[in-house]
Write a structure and sequence with these properties.
This protein has 26 helices and no strands. It is a multi-pass membrane protein.
Length: 521
């Protein structure tokens, strides 16, 4: 007797598994990443606008070269303080509201600098701006990495570097646009305009959701689930991400509800976080910290700030004269940086972090040697216009910013926002930013003095040597993280997951209990 059969369409539907639609929420995750990453535009604008504005500030306020060096580099020191304050603030009130605070602080600082009547007031404005920058560059990559799905995390997290470069370009354009105004007014308008993107940012951020990982840390599972469902590629991935975040936060898998109490666990309070990351790190945590700090250090030690901040002076040393020509070539450099950073954002998740990092650093090394050679030749023949040397300087500078923007520039924030475990991520990223800002300050506050001591060409040969060391460091200590869930990246450095650690702790306690029982018997 033949068994009853389903109609063909129904049978096919029953047999074929339903495939979840991929990337249906990419636009929402992308919008969140764009809104948060806009916070870093304030750093880029300050770097770009100060490269030209400093020429007129020095003239109007009658500053020495030492005062100019301090004025240019001190923002990085202030950003160091801001990054640590931002880390604590973001863990306290959330990533989203921290972005708003960053925008408000930079808004106030831009106005203070624009209305400064003397060097002291101007430096106070630099302090306020620096605090805002520190908040911004700490929280934006962390928020984006925590919101983005693993499949596009590299792309979305690199938006922070994209907006830094957009800010630099806007700063260059502002220099070029207002340079023809009287010198006692033009630099004030250049700096005051920086308040505009800050105001827009504060309004945009109000529509962002909170980071799902911060929500889980606060026990708000229902809110976190809503955000994950909107930002994950599939519903299944949203469930998996929530389970992974709960495990990383120490919440038992079977504990569920709209709001739950987050159990206190080893490393859960602030003192334990500092102990786990700084004062008594495990070998695995030490390797993670070394990789993060190394990437940040070499990003700045290879001379990127010297090229960007002092580009008009570099081009002037290369034989280009006239403010319009100097600022025009500087704008061309800004366009090049922006174009290549946009290209890199679409390659990070395809090619990977490590190949781009190694290729970028190798290219920068060659370009720094070329720039040092060109500047040295021009410096040895001050009364002659050596066309090939000038061309070599311009080509090397444009190629340098291109290589930087396709690798070491965007990958630094992407990589460091990924490698730290959830419980130490905000502090870990703040330490990376601190290393970055201290190195940036050291480079930017010594460039003019260094150029006088060993010549401007010699300075870039020195940066080339540091780039070579950086390449060796990346090759030896920086593993690939492409496509890995945030909660699994620690395994690349040898870290066990939360469940294994808990099992190990339980087994250890059982052994201790048995040993005590044997002794008593």
């Amino acid at each position: 007797m033949a068994s009853a059969a389903l109609p063909v369409p129904e049978a096919a539907a029953a047999a074929a598994p339903v495939q979840p639609k991929k990337k249906s929420n990419f636009k929402y995750a992308c919008t969140c990443a764009l809104s948060a990453s806009m916070a870093t535009i304030v750093l880029g604008y300050d770097v770009g606008v100060m490269s030209g504005a400093s020429l007129y500030i020095k003239e109007d306020l009658r500053l020495t070269d030492v005062q100019v060096e301090i004025m240019m580099g001190i923002l990085s020191v202030y950003a160091l303080l801001g990054s640590f304050a931002g880390a604590r603030t973001s863990d306290w009130i959330g990533r989203r509201y921290t972005v708003i605070i960053a925008a408000a602080i930079f808004f106030a600082g831009s106005l203070l600098m624009g209305f400064a009547v003397n060097y002291v007031m101007f430096m106070f404005g630099r302090f306020v701006c620096g605090m805002g920058v520190g908040f911004a560059i700490m929280v934006a990559p962390v928020y984006t990495a925590e919101v983005a799905p693993a499949s596009t995390r590299g792309l979305l997290t690199s938006f922070t570097e994209v907006f830094i470069n957009v800010g630099i370009l806007l700063g260059y354009v502002s220099n070029f646009a207002f340079a023809r105004l009287p010198h006692h007014i033009n630099w004030r308008i250049m700096l005051g305009v920086g308040a505009v993107p800050s105001a827009l940012l504060a309004l945009m951020v109000l529509g962002m959701p909170e980071s799902p990982r911060w929500l889980v840390m606060k026990g708000r599972l229902a809110d976190a689930r809503v955000v994950l469902e909107k930002t994950s590629d599939t519903p299944e991935e949203a469930v998996e991400r929530l389970d992974q975040i709960k495990a990383a936060a120490g919440i038992p898998h079977d504990l569920d509800g709209d709001v739950v109490a987050v159990p206190k666990r080893k490393g859960g309070n602030e003192k334990q976080v500092w102990k786990e990351l700084i004062f008594s790190p495990t070998p695995v945590m030490r390797r993670i910290l070394l990789a993060a700090l190394g990437v940040h250090f070499f990003q700045q030690a290879t001379g990127s700030d010297s090229v960007v901040l002092y580009s008009p002076r570099v081009f002037k040393s290369a034989g280009i004269t006239g403010d319009n020509h100097l600022l025009g070539v500087t704008c061309a450099m800004g366009v090049t940086k922006t174009l290549f950073i946009l290209l890199a954002t679409f390659q990070i998740d395809r090619v990977g972090r490590r190949p781009l990092l190694l290729t970028s650093t190798a290219g920068m090394l060659v370009c720094l040697i070329g720039l040092g050679t060109g500047l040295t030749v021009v410096g040895q023949h001050p009364d002659e216009k050596i066309t090939w040397a000038i061309g070599l300087c311009i080509a090397s500078t444009l190629a340098y910013v291109s290589f930087f923007s396709m690798g070491l520039g965007p990958i630094t924030s992407v990589y460091v926002s990924e490698v730290f475990p959830l419980r130490v991520r905000a502090l870990g990223f703040a330490l990376g930013v601190a290393c970055n800002r201290v190195t940036s300050a050291a480079i930017s506050m010594t460039f003019l003095s260094l150029s006088k001591a060993i010549t401007i060409g010699g300075s870039f040969f020195l940066y080339a040597g540091l780039a070579a060391l950086g390449w060796l460091f990346f090759y030896a200590f920086v593993p690939e993280t492409r496509g890995q869930p945030l909660e699994d990246i620690g395994k690349l450095f040898g870290m066990k997951d939360a469940a294994v650690e808990d099992d190990d702790d339980t087994a250890t306690k059982d052994k201790q209990v048995k040993a005590a029982a044997v002794e008593m018997n």
